[in-house]
Amino acid sequence: MNEEILQSEPGRVYRDLWNHNIQTINELHQKICASVRELESDYTDFEHSYRKIEEMIKTLSSICAGYNVIEGKDYILKLKALIEHYRKRYTREGISFDLINFLLVNISDLRNKSLEQFPYMEHQLGFDADESGPGAMETQSLTAHRWITFSRNRSWFILPYGDALVIEKPEFETSGRPGPERIEIVYSGRAFTARDLMSKFTPNPPDPGIIIMTDRGRENYAADEIGKRINADRDFIWQMIRPLDRSIPGNILAGRVRIFGKRHFFINPA
Q1: Of all helices (H) and strands (E), which one includes residue 8?
Q2: What phi, psi does 219 have (nearest 5°)?
Q3: Most CB contacts within 10 A, which of 37, 49, 177, 189?
Q4: pLDDT tens-digit profile of 98-111?
Q5: What is the mean pLDDT of the chain?
Q6: Which residue, among 79, 266, 254, 229, has the nearest Cα to 146 in the 3D structure?
Q7: For residue range 216-267, what is the model confidence (pLDDT) as tens digits?
């Protein structure tokens, strides 16, 4: 649609309807996440909990089905089928809340990706877009937990973060290596130190092409490739961590996580 149509009365009506439906979709998603948490913590009336979640998923699926631009519909159907399967078993035994939350994360992720460039989308809709491009600072997400995945020195990592700025060369320059698995960079006229994970196991590691700056530049990481960002209300990643074969003193790698078909080292910056 061109700008003239957008500013016409039918265009304004359509825009208002679109924004209302997107708001409803995000509110439904939040309510489903909250109901799943209730189901996990309070199982006294699981039939009611299951049916409430089922009805919200049906409504969410119905609204999303009306828009070809919205992605993630397959994951909504998978979530619907999974909840129905669990309800029919009439038991708590064997319920994978990690799988449920994984599907919810993918639904949100795909929807946000499909909407971030759509001209009618208003901000303050409840979920952050997956901004994995250079120079994108993400700070005030309504989700309680956030992670970013990246590769460096032939290994994949997953990092929890509060804010993250992804910068690429030539935005920064490398200026030296002050110590093991450390690299110095200059960005915007200021010097920073970044962790270069697994570089001590890599002969002559190449300079990174990407730096992930977190905590406003106080904790930074060298990267070769950016993977995905994950936003969730529940920390389902921590339960997936498997310990390393042996403990390494001072190591910030807390264990391994298999996600998106790859094994990742989990970074515990605390």
Answers
A1: none
A2: -135, 115
A3: 49
A4: 888 888 888 887 77
A5: 78
A6: 229
A7: 888 999 999 998 888 777 777 887 888 887 655 557 898 998 887 788 999 9
Q: Which two tokens stand for residue 199?
A: 């570089």
Residues with Cβ < 8 Å from 18, sequence gap 6 or more?
120
Most distant pair of Cα atoms in the chain: their distance: 66
E strands present in the chain? 137-138, 145-152, 155-160, 164-168, 172-176, 182-187, 190-195, 210-214, 219-223, 225-232, 253-259, 262-267
Nearest by Cα to 132 from 171, 165, 172, 160: 165
pTM: 0.55
Say which CATH class 3-115 falls into.
mainly alpha
Provide the pLDDT for residue 143.
64
| CA dist., res. 264 & res. 241, Å (int) | 9
Reported as a pLDDT band with limits 50, 70 and 90, residue 183 is: very high
Give residues with Cβ within 8 angstroms of 105, minimum separation 6: 230, 231, 232, 236
Neighbours of 108 (CB within 10 A): 26
The domain limits of the chain are: 3-115, 137-267
Nearest CA among 264, 260, 267 for reference residue 102: 260
